[in-house]
């Protein structure tokens, strides 16, 4: 993949590596880092033609996953924190947030598959993060969870049959997980 702003990816990677190896809560620290990078980048760029929301998500999520892999971090926690951070960082509501959730899931699954990571953990973390971030974005938890699952399935379909065969059961298991989580809220 060609990164539009490799410095942004490198920044995300380095900050995530430091957070994962530090004493703080991995999900919370990851969410805070991704929120700050996304929000600052979008604010500074003014969502210009030069830099779009999807480009910011591409670079930050890719960097965060690379950092997670480099320090053998917990992929499920990283995915949860990344999703929460993107939702907070984009500061959008309604359809736009759902589109950001879908795109984040697509990038996460693409990068996880490319790195040989655990697609079940990534998918579960994405959906957990979507549910946790939904209330802040004014979305229903169900819609956010479905958007994350949809993005995961789209990315898997684009990656090929082997990846799709791994992600589809993960999404099925996540659907059961979502029902449990939502029943306890």
Percent in strands: under 5%
Order of helices and strands: HHHHHHHH
Calculate the terminal CA-CA distance, rounded to whole Å: 39 Å
Share of helix among residues? over 70%
Number of separate structural domains: 1
Number of helices: 8
Query: What's the story with the biggest beta sheet?
Result: none
Radius of gyration: 15 Å
* Uncertain residue ranges: none
> What is the global morphology?
globular
Oligomer: single chain
Output mean pLDDT: 83
Going by helix content, strand content and strand pairing, the class is mainly alpha
Tell me the number of strands: 0
Jot down its keywords.
185 residues, mainly alpha, globular
List the helices and strands and how they pair.
Layout: H1 6-21, H2 26-45, H3 53-70, H4 75-90, H5 95-114, H6 119-137, H7 141-159, H8 161-183
Helix pairs in contact: 1-2, 1-3, 2-3, 2-4, 3-4, 3-5, 4-5, 4-6, 5-6, 5-7, 6-7, 6-8, 7-8
Question: Short description, anyone?
Answer:
The protein is an all-alpha fold and 185 residues long.
């Amino acid at each position: 993949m060609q990164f539009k702003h490799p410095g942004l990816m490198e920044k995300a990677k380095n900050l995530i590596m430091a957070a994962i190896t530090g004493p703080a809560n991995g999900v919370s620290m990851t969410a805070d880092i991704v929120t700050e990078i996304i929000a600052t980048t979008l604010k500074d760029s003014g969502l210009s033609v030069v830099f779009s929301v999807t480009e910011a998500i591409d670079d930050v999520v890719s960097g965060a996953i690379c950092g997670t892999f480099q320090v053998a971090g917990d992929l499920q926690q990283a995915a949860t924190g990344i999703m929460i951070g993107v939702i907070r960082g984009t500061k959008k509501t309604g359809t736009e947030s759902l589109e950001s959730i879908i795109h984040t899931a697509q990038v996460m699954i693409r990068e996880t598959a490319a790195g040989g990571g655990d697609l079940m953990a990534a998918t579960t973390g994405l959906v957990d993060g979507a549910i946790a971030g939904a209330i802040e974005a004014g979305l229903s938890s169900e819609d956010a969870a479905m958007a994350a699952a949809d993005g995961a399935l789209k990315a898997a379909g684009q990656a090929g049959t082997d990846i799709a065969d791994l992600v589809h059961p993960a999404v099925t298991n996540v659907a059961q997980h979502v029902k449990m989580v939502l029943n306890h809220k």
